[in-house]
């Protein structure tokens, strides 16, 4: 949004009584403060790729989103569990399952699976060749198709500023907050969240943060871990009491075209619980 456009919006939004009761200098100060939170700072051209500037890791993450037929959830989960066992039995693959979840709030009858490839896309290619020659794996893949309504695959990179990924134990729930950003704003998003993440580590809730490389582009996924919904509520309210969190939110809101969240429950075979 340009400065001129922001100013026009600011004049429309400010109620008339505020103008009549506030002095000119005070009004100018209030408008400047309000605008400073909403304006997106200019992004300078760069010769470095966004992925190199935002991520310093060589791991590739693979996020599968499966929409399951309601009458086939049990069969689907059994099928995927057997698939995971085949992958784990192969010691020559730099591929591991990080998390596997059922959606409990949001897109119901949906399952998410997060895999990590250590070594970049070369390891992704190697795994595809190896698994594609395994008859049992191929058979499970074909069978799985009969349990699904639709599916989507994304390859992701981890944000460099996010805390190191740690698998969780015990009983937890997860929240995945997915954002579709305006093209060209990923660097600005990263700059703001590099500061914002400092306000969201009091309860070790930050699990993982990714941005898309292949699939739906300009997508961001933040995954948070909580003990329960009440713990989520208290943790999020605590962040709003932290000085500076509100400014980080104000700077990132104009970058978003669409967002939604889902509450997830780990499957029995998920490495992170």
TrEMBL record:
Protein name: NIPSNAP domain-containing protein
Family per similarity comment: Belongs to the NipSnap family.
Gene Ontology biological process: mitophagy
Organism lineage string: Eukaryota, Metazoa, Ecdysozoa, Arthropoda, Hexapoda
NIPSNAP domain ranges (all copies): 61-118, 174-271
Species assigned in the record: Anopheles dirus
Cellular component aspect of the GO annotation: mitochondrion
Coiled-coil ranges (or none): none
């Amino acid at each position: 949004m340009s400065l001129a456009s922001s100013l026009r919006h600011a004049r429309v939004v400010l109620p008339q009584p505020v103008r009549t009761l506030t002095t000119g200098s005070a009004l100018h100060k209030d408008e400047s403060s309000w605008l400073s939170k909403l304006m997106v700072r200019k992004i300078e051209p760069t010769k470095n790729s966004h992925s190199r500037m935002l991520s310093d890791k060589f791991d590739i993450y693979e996020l599968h989103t499966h929409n399951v037929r309601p009458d086939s959830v049990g069969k689907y989960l059994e099928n995927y569990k057997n698939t995971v066992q085949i992958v784990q039995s192969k010691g020559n693959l730099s591929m591991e399952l990080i998390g596997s979840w059922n959606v409990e709030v949001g897109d119901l009858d949906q399952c998410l699976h997060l895999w990590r490839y250590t070594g970049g896309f070369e390891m992704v290619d190697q795994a595809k060749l190896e698994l594609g020659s395994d008859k049992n794996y191929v058979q499970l893949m074909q069978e799985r198709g009969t349990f699904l309504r639709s599916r989507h695959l994304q390859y992701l990179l981890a944000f460099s500023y996010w805390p190191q990924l740690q698998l969780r134990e015990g009983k937890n729930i997860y929240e995945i907050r997915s954002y579709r950003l305006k093209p060209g704003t990923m660097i600005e998003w990263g700059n703001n969240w590099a500061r914002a993440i400092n306000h969201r580590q009091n309860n070790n809730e930050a699990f993982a943060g990714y941005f898309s490389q292949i699939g739906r582009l300009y997508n961001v996924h933040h995954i948070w871990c909580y003990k329960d919904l009440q713990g989520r509520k208290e943790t999020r309210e605590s962040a709003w009491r932290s000085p500076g969190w509100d400014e980080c939110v104000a700077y990132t809101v104009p970058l978003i075209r669409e967002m939604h969240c889902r509450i997830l429950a780990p499957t029995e075979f998920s490495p992170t619980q």
